[in-house]
Amino acid sequence: MPEMPEVEGLRAFLAERLVGATVTRAELAAFSALKTFTLPLSALLGQEITAVQRRGKFLCLDVSGTWLVFHLARAGWLRWYEQAPASPAKPGKGPLALRLVAEPAGGFDLTEAGTQKHLALYVVADPGEVPGIARLGPDPLADDFDEAAFGAVLAEHARTQIKGLLKDQSLLAGVGNAYSDEILQAAKLSPFKLAGSLTGEETSALYAAVRKELTAAIGRAVGLPPAELKDGKRSSLRVHGRKGEPCPVCGTVVAEVSFADSFLNYCPGCQTGGKLLADRRLSKLLK
Q: Where is the FPG-type domain (predicted)?
């Protein structure tokens, strides 16, 4: 799933190319992806794209006051065209959800792999009308999100495991499964540690890791074309998706906890004092 750094990379890429261009085509290929009906896609036609913004994991195109907002979900992605295909996008069972063309810039397709379709499109007068955006918590890289604000989030959700807290978009906007693993490894904290149990030193370490890991990942992502963002992300991860490989910090073999529809990775040496955490389906620590 694209997370804040990759979405920020897409935002920078699109802003550089689309701001000032005029929308000439907006073609829906997956009708289930469009979640709003008050404003039609045709409201974008002939209008200038004036800004591209990111809200959490949402991308928001300001098209002369009408906003095209989209969330790529778990399996969605963006394919950029310097010259868009001349043929119109056709509804069907393929991965294509939306084709947008803006002259003279080019255009892009939004696609989604797999059979479970969760990619979401919105045409709204204001991004705040999108339910997922209205529910977003603070951006962890915002200038006013200091350690005290972070500590307040931890205190308010003291009984929440920090892995889940980092991923909860209503508490922190933009962090997902992969970067929460990376943040916790950098902070040397177990993913199952309760937020309210963190010491002052651990809170400081976690806050610093959140800022450092996300800032570094954005630095790697911005400037890459969409086709290279996924590989760029995978190659930079230390523990997420690295089950069975040595931790680059301490050399301990990276372990995994599996859930019904996801997984997490961690380093026992860095994070749990050498203990292996059980698969959550077993509901207890391995002995």
A: 238-272
Q: Which domains are present in the chain?
A: 4-134 (3.20.190.10), 147-271 (1.10.8.50)
| pLDDT tens track for 226-271 | 999 999 999 999 999 999 999 999 999 999 999 888 999 999 999 9
Q: pLDDT, tens digit, for every residue of 117-157?
A: 899 999 999 999 999 999 999 999 999 999 999 999 999 99
3-state helix/strand/coil string of the chain = CCCHHHHHHHHHHHHHHHCCCEEEEEEECCHHHECCCCCCHHHHCCCEEEEEEEECCEEEEEECCEEEEEECCCCEEEEEECCCCCCCCCCCCCCEEEEEEEECCEEEEEEECCCCCCCEEEEECCHHHCHHHHCCCCCCCCCCCCHHHHHHHHHHCCCCEHHHHHHCCCCCCCCCHHHHHHHHHHHCCCCCCEHHHCCHHHHHHHHHHHHHHHHHHHHHHCCCCHHHHHHHHHHHCCCCCCCCCECCCCCCECEEEECCCCEEEECHHHHCCCCCCCCCCCCCCCC
